[in-house]
Amino acid sequence: MGWLAGAPSTWRLMPAKASFSERREPNLPDDVHLTPSQIHGVLPQAEYMSRTGNSVVQNIQGQDNMKHVDPDDFIIHLRSFQGGIERSTYKGKVSTAYTVLKPSKIVVPDYFRWLLKSDGYVQELRTTTNQLRDGQSIKFRDFAKISLPVPLPEEQRAIAEYLDRETARIDTLIEEQQRLIEMLGERRVATVAETLDGSQWTQVRRLVDHDRPMTYGILQCGEPVEGGVVYIGPSDIKGEGLSPHRDALRTTAPEIASAYKRSVLKSGDVVVSIGPAYGKVAVVSDDLTGANLTQDTVRIALRPDLVDTRFFVWALLSRQTAEYWDYQIMGATFRRLNLGTLARTPIPLPALQEQRRIAAYLDERTAKIDSLIAETERFIELARERRSALITAAVTGQVDVREAA
User: Fold this and answer.
1) How many C-beta atoms surround the C-beta of residue 400 within 10 A?
2) What is the C-alpha to C-alpha distance for residues 80 and 76, in angstroms, rounded to an integer?
3) In the chain, what percentage of residues exceed pLDDT 90?
4) Domain hosting residue 14, numbered range
5) CA 309/CA 208 separation, integer angstroms
6) Per-residue pLDDT for 375 more than 50?
7) Residue 404: what pLDDT?
8) What is the tally of structural domains in the chain?
């Protein structure tokens, strides 16, 4: 019985081909072009493009060579092994690349909409064939291999109504928590911006060690070399000032690195990404002394008598700096920083002791906000797990929906 081991003994277990047949009729002249997706369900193509902002018209097969779809048909589409079986509420047409399922009289579409998306069913569907590429869709012959539970119509309707009600409650709760995360994120940004206001300002270039000027790194790093020189690129910078782990970095040949002695790193240097993923900041750890960096990153060797490194990191990550950079690159074909823009970036510069106090305060305040965000994200994860488990339990008869009503 597998995923249906807990189903009531009164439920019928029937081959899928008894519940659905494959619809093969060609499209009708007045059929609207439908687009199925896991996020939006089945929508007319124009509405789908409006929701997704996609201006590319999907017309792979041609408008005159498509499959007809009736309301309450189900469409097996891409990523079907991840739940890509969607119920249509529209009359229309889809590409012949999709499989259209016509429900029989024993099927209550509202119930099977939940059943065919449940984790238990999706996992069972994956056992019908091996070594499918990610995103490849199944065919009717694979779909037909799995037996489906078929409660009485009135019980199917009761389960569907129960799941509509209970998942709506969970979804509302998740939306509330997602709004909380957005508010916390906004509060975090505002905390940094407000704390940095009210100081005298200078430019980044005035805070740099004259003996080690700002510079970008290696133009062409080549293939990784075992035992070579490690280097930092934009993708290696993960956190707010956190140093990349040496073991995770790529390497370049010593011969290549030797031509870029100007960009050799030392402990405490600040590295800023300037490429398409601009604005990420890292502080070099002790074990990365002697490493190098790429052309999409810039080394900033600070003067410790003028600026605290942690304070400088917060300044670069502030809303004020983000707005300055956005203004400087406004209208550019390729949105990226350059060395000159970074060098001219305004930075607040209170007294050194005050910088340290501000940095410590921001570390503490943002850590508290980050902890609240992490707790909320975990709550959302648990709610989604609860939602998924509830669906599987209900569609397999492990929940008495009459008692739960």
Assistant:
1) 12
2) 6
3) 78
4) 2-150
5) 11
6) yes
7) 62
8) 2
Residue by residue, DSSP assigns 270-281 as EEEE-STTTT-E
**CA–CA separation, 187 and 180 (whole Å):** 10
106: in domain = yes
Strand partners, 66: 95
SS3 string, the chain, reads CHHHCCCCCCCEEEEHHHHEEEECCECCCCCEEEEEECCCEEEEHHHHHHHHCCCCCCCCCCCCCEEEECCCCEEECCCHHHCCEEECCCCEEEECCCEEEEECCCCCHHHHHHHCCCHHHHHHHHHHCCCCCCCCCCCHHHHCCCEEEECCHHHHHHHHHHHHHHHHHHHHHHHHHHHHHHHHHHHHHHHHHHHHCCCCEEEHHHHECCCCCCEECECCCCCCCCCCEEEECHHHCCCCECCCCHHHCEEECHHHHHCCHHHCCCCCCEEEECCCCCCCEEECCHHHCCCEEECCEEEECECCCCCCHHHHHHHHCCHHHHHHHHHHCCCCCCCCCCHHHHHHCEEECCCHHHHHHHHHHHHHHHHHHHHHHHHHHHHHHHHHHHHHHHHHHHHCCCCCHHHHC
Residues 60, 75: Cα–Cα separation, whole Å: 17
**Residue 368 in domain:** no
Closest-CA residue to 272 (of 304, 224, 309): 309
pLDDT in the model for residue 275: 86
**11-25, 61-75, 299-313: least confident range:** 61-75
> Would residue 289 count as lying in a domain?
yes
Q: What is the pLDDT of residues 30-81, one digit of tens each?
A: 999 999 998 899 999 999 998 887 755 554 445 668 999 999 999 998 776 7
Boundary (domain end) residue, out of 349, 377, 400: 349
What contacts 63, CB < 8 A, 6 or more positions away?
A: 27, 33
Mean predicted lDDT score pLDDT of the chain: 91
User: How many CB atoms are closer than 10 A to CB 171?
Assistant: 13
Co-location of 131 and 211 in the same domain = no
Separation CA 14–CA 264 (nearest Å): 69
* Residue 246 placed within a domain: yes
Rounded CA separation 19/196 (Å): 65
**Residue 87: beta bridge partners?**
74
